[in-house]
Design goal:
The structure is a homodimer of 243-residue chains. Chain A is of the alpha/beta class. Helix content of chain A is 30%, strand content 21%. Chain A folds into two domains: 3-132, Tetrapyrrole methylase, N-terminal domain (Cobalt-precorrin-4 Transmethylase, domain 1, 3-Layer(aba) Sandwich), CATH 3.40.1010.10; 135-241, 2-Layer Sandwich (Methyltransferase, Cobalt-precorrin-4 Transmethylase, Domain 2). Chain A has helices at 19-27, 42-46, 73-96, 113-120, 134-142, 162-169, 184-193; strands at 3-8, 30-35, 56-61, 99-103, 125-129, 153-157, 174-178, 200-204, 212-215, 228-232. In chain A, the strands form two sheets. The first copy, chain A, has a five-stranded parallel β-sheet, with helices on both faces. A five-stranded mixed β-sheet of chain A has the order 6-7-10-8-9, sandwiched between helices. The termini of chain A are far apart. Mean pLDDT of chain A is 92; it is low at 239-243.
């Protein structure tokens, strides 16, 4: 059995990946990464300049079709077949030499690699290297602690049903909202209803080229940024110890 | 104005700190870190072998006294004076050369450095380097994704009042419970009431020497591990895409 090493790349700045991931990526002879068809791919961009000259690259291009809705059963089947095929291929490649799989952020935190990880159990020696989650890169560039003292922090997806989003956002503590994009209008409504819109930040491409940090209330409706996360900072319960 | 650079050290394994933090720590001539009086200190242990030979070390020892309760007004004042004094000293040291402050995990995620950060505003050029949060190191060593798909993830402190802890834990999604120690009995009661005890993991010293990974239900009552986090994994909403 060969080794498949999934390297968490962190939030985007290559300098923020771990020493171990950096070492594995520089030594790799076979590198695989997800990307959208026709795009260079975010994960690949992060490792630009780190890969060895003789590396074999395997872009794993998501099956795209405009005929099927993203949440349809057919699309789910298409994706399952795609993961099945790549799991087979990576298991075969690993018999020749180690395979490094690139993963933005932290692989065990909402990472796509998990679809391969479950399929590869028992078929290769699997290693996963933790990375700084994208959200941590985002709260770092805002320059304020996301949570302090006894704050509760809730991580939510903008794809949640509106009723649940409203309920979860109605919270006095720290909030992280991912998968924004076209859900931003719904997220803004929920934060407004909870009285927290004026505390909310929108961070686009945090720690990456083209980074943008803005107050959510200043974002034009209809602006649907990519790689964007909404943050509402905790207030630091037990204030007396926190200034 | 000199530079004060707070380096997030990640969960404990020195190989998991960022490339940038590693570089700053190796180049440092002045290094400061918190520790308990009479202890070597966790942050200092992580950088063992990385520091330059001629480095000046500044252990910032928490004021300890057995006369005062940890949550008393007097103890809070003692801590505030301690942070005031160290902010003054670091600002002075930074005029000579850069000062690197070590911080376990990610500095903006429940990090003690924030007590200095707020006091040092405008008195030095402040830089904070993100790190892998301790919790991410812990879910990595368990080897299962903490959250997938549309899972909600809630981060809680074991120090919360029992009524609130019970309410927050009564949740079908991913849970991270920090500040365990003597609160473990209360945490176990809350998870039992929510019907989630058998899914809960306890990770002690995750990614560090002496690491222990156990089912929470198998931990002896009365066992109060240090540096321990309780994890309950999300189930991956939208299962059809997640296997």
């Amino acid at each position: 059995m060969g080794r498949i090493i999934c390297c968490g790349l962190g939030p985007g700045d290559p300098d923020l990946m771990s020493v171990r991931a950096d070492r594995e990526i520089r030594a790799a002879t076979q590198v695989a990464y997800f990307r959208k068809k026709g795009r260079p791919g975010q994960a690949r961009r992060i490792v630009e300049g780190l890969l060895a000259q003789n590396v074999c690259e395997y872009p794993m291009e998501y099956p795209v079709t405009t005929e099927l809705a993203f949440d349809s059963k057919e699309y789910a089947q298409l994706l399952a077949d795609f993961y099945d095929a790549w799991a087979d291929r990576l298991a075969r490649l690993a018999r020749e030499d180690n395979v490094v799989v690139l993963c933005e952020g932290d692989p065990f935190f909402y990472g796509s690699f998990m679809h391969l990880y479950s399929r590869l159990q028992g078929r290769a020696e699997l290693h996963v290297i933790a990375g700084i989650p994208g959200m941590a890169g985002c709260w770092n560039v805002v320059g304020q602690p996301i949570a302090l003292g006894d704050d509760v922090m809730t991580v939510l997806m903008g794809t949640l049903p509106e009723e649940e989003l409203n309920r979860r956002v109605n919270n006095e503590d720290a909030l992280v909202i991912m998968k924004t994009g076209r859900n931003l209008v719904k997220i803004r409504r929920a934060l407004t209803a909870a009285g927290r819109l004026e505390e909310a930040w929108l961070i686009e491409r945090g720690t990456m080229p083209g980074e943008r940090i803005a107050r959510l209330e200043d974002i034009e409706p209809g602006d649907c940024p990519y790689f964007a996360i909404v943050l509402v900072h905790g207030r630091g319960r037990r204030r007396e110890l926190c200034e």
